[in-house]
Structures are given as C-alpha cells and as structure tokens.
Amino acid sequence: MGRSGDLPRIAGSSEGDDTGCTMLHVDMDAFFASVEIRRRPELRGKPVLVGGGTRGVVAAASYEARRYGIRSAMPMSQALRRCPRAIVLPPDRQAYTEASAAVMAILRDVTPLVEPLSLDEAFLDVAAAVRRQGRPAEIAAAIRRRVFAEQALTCSVGVAPTKFVAKVASARCKPDGMLVVPVADVLTFLHPLPVTALWGVGARTAEPLARLGIRTVADLAATPIETLRRSVGASSAEHLFALAQGIDPRAVSADEVEKSISAEHTVNDDLTTEAEVTRQLLGLAGEVARRVRERGVVARTIGIKIRFADFSTVTRVRTLPGRTDATATIYDTALSLYRSLRLDQPRIRLVGVKAEGLAEAAAVSEQLSFDDLAAGPAPRATDAVIDEARRRFGAGAIRYASLLGPPGDDPVQENRLSVRDGE
C-alpha cells in the first residue's frame, strides 16, 4: 500500500461521525526504532536506524531519519549516504516481540476480536465493545492513551466502517494520530488517493493500470469492470473494483495463524565456504525454530533463500513428512537444501531460513516417524532447556559455540526482521 507521505490531505478527522465505524486499525509508530529510543532516551530527536550492518537494509527509521527520505527496506548504504550522521542500531527481536505482546494484550483487553498483521499492527472489531466502552472514536483514543501510558510508545489509529479504509486512515494520520472516516465520507476519502493505496496494487499491477490512464482510486472506480479484467485479470479486477467502491466485507479474524516465520541475514563480507554458510544457517534455523515454538505452532515446510554478490537470488523449499518445531530438524533440512544447490566457489551476501505451512501445535496429533524414534527425546528436550534459559536470562544466555565470532556477522543478533515496521 502507498505510504502516508504519498497521500493528499482529504476527508476525515479525529472528530468525525463514527456511527457504524467499528473497524479499527492500530499501527505502532516507527515501532522498532521507537522501542530502541525508549530504552535509550538520549537518542530522542535524533535520526535512528535499525538494521543489520552497512550491507543490510533498514528495518526501521525514526521520523527524524525519514525527513532525509529514508524508508524501511532501503539499503543501509543508501540510507547512510542520505544521512551520514544517522545512528545505526542492530535489531533486537526479543525486545520488539516483548513490546508487541504487551501492546496486543492492551488491545485484547478492549475486545477479543483482534487480528494481528505483524508485530506492530492489528485490526480490531469493536462493535461489541461500544455499549460498555463508548463510541469507536472514544475507544480508539483510550487505546492510544493506554499504549503511551503503559509502554511509552505511540500508535496511530484509523477508525472506519471497513478494514481497508481503517488501514488507509491509520497511514494518513501518522505519527501519533487518529483519523475517523465516516460511513458517508468513505468515497470522498478514497477517491483522491493514488491507485497504489489499494491493497494489491504494487509496481507490477500499477503499470497496466497506468497504461489505461488510471492514476487515482477515482479513475479505477470509473473504469468498466471488463476493461479492468482484460488489463489485470478477473480476480484482481473484481477485488480492486470493490475496494475502489469502498466495499470490503472481510471480518476481523482473531484466530488467524501466521502463514510463515522467517529470518535472514546480510553479511558484511561475502561468504565463500560451506562452513561460513553452515554457521549462518544454524543461527537462523535456531531463531526461526524459537519463534515457531514461541507462537505454539509447528511447520510442515522449510525453505532457504540465498542471495549472491551479484544480487541474484535462489530459493528452495522442502515439505517434511510430518510437522516440526525442532531446531535440529529445521537446520538439517535447511543445510540439505543448501547442499542440493551444489554451488562452486559461491560469493553469498544473504542467507535466509523460513518455516511455512504452520498449524497450531495443540491441534496437530503427533505421530513419531522412525527417524524420530531413532533420534530419541534429546533434541526437543534440548530445545526446551534452551528456551527456558533464554526466557529467564536473556537471548544471549545460551549460544551455539560455532556462532561465536565477529559481531557483525552474527546471524542471531543481526538477522533481518521479517515483519513490516510501522510507517
């Protein structure tokens, strides 16, 4: 979706008629950077970047850094050219996960109908909360006050009749704002926006639309559906046409399970040996496995991503005979996938590991394979001991010996965060 900076000032206010506007989108402001600044108050008001090394990307940028045109996913080298005095901090996923859990707990105090999209944003359906907590806008304002009072973090909240409009509204009022889009003003609000504000319109979809002269949401809403079908395909055309008319019937899905959990790391110096890649895979597999267990899910598919020095990228995935949350299984599968590439004298700048096909662990009956029986209980017991030690003493309490090396190439401490940071 288009960034808030791309959107013109149009209809909507913090005091509009919120009748029927029971969808809220809560989006934390520059979340990762804000968590870092919260524990380092001396950084307040300074350009702060969160990311992994000079060859990595920006995972988050404070609003002071954004004044230089720096955005999430920008190469760190480019960001530092724009703002040489920016303060660069390595990501701390544990800190962000803990802050996210605290914020989500606040939201679930309002209503059980909370649908997290990532660590830093969520939809809420407050229809059932209105009677005891007040009008939707009052609930949104109370959320903002409580998040700031309890977590010393700010968030922006869109209040609207549908999920899509609420998400656009939260982007429009950043940072630290609230925007109500009344039912009667939905089209007035949407139609001046660039067409890239619509869910599903990225660079690839925007090109054929531009050839039709479609630049704004109003342009798309006025285009015959048959013309759109010929340009972008039937399903995309119907989806985009509905959004352009302000139609979005999707309900908040409180029980939705993440589709995948991933971690990746861009190294400071190209990897050229299998031993170097193995070290990265072990650290990333451990991080992914920890997060899989943390969320109470198990994975059916394991994948890797390898990006070479020339920026070409290959991915490989493998579906397992059963589901897993074990570090050893995820690592062994990732290593096997890497070896299947049969690379000769590689120069690798990025390594990633991903777990997909997730299901709630409690809902999956466990049937041990012959491999599991041969391996015995040690791997899962080891994982449980490591997880407990890290919960009690911090993420660095227990480390694989092979991961002890130069801090700039630590795949655990500096893996690239795989969630979108709030804009």
Count of discrete alpha- or pi-helical segments spanning 4 or more residues:
16
The biggest sheet amounts to: 5 strands, mixed
Beta-strand percent range: 15-25%
- Strand tally is 13
* Unreliable runs: 1-12, 367-376, 413-423
Mean pLDDT across all amino acids: 84
Briefly note the structural class of the backbone. Answer: alpha+beta
Separation, N- and C-terminal Cα atoms = 11 Å
The dominant shape is globular
Explain this structure to me?
By secondary structure, the protein is an alpha+beta fold. It is 39% helix and 20% strand. The chain contains 16 helices and 13 strands. It has helices at residues 31-39, 63-66, 76-82, 93-110, 130-133, 136-151, 163-172, 186-190, 203-211, 217-221, 225-232, 234-244, 274-294, 327-340, 370-375, 378-393, and strands spanning 23-28, 48-51, 58-61, 87-89, 114-118, 121-125, 155-160, 178-180, 260-271, 297-308, 313-324, 348-356, 359-360. The strands form three sheets. It has a five-stranded mixed β-sheet. α7 links the parallel β7 and β8. α4 (93-110) packs antiparallel against α6 and α11 packs across α12 (234-244). The longest helix has 21 residues, at 274-294. The chain is globular, with a radius of gyration of 23 Å. Mean pLDDT is 84; it is low at 1-12, 367-376 and 413-423.
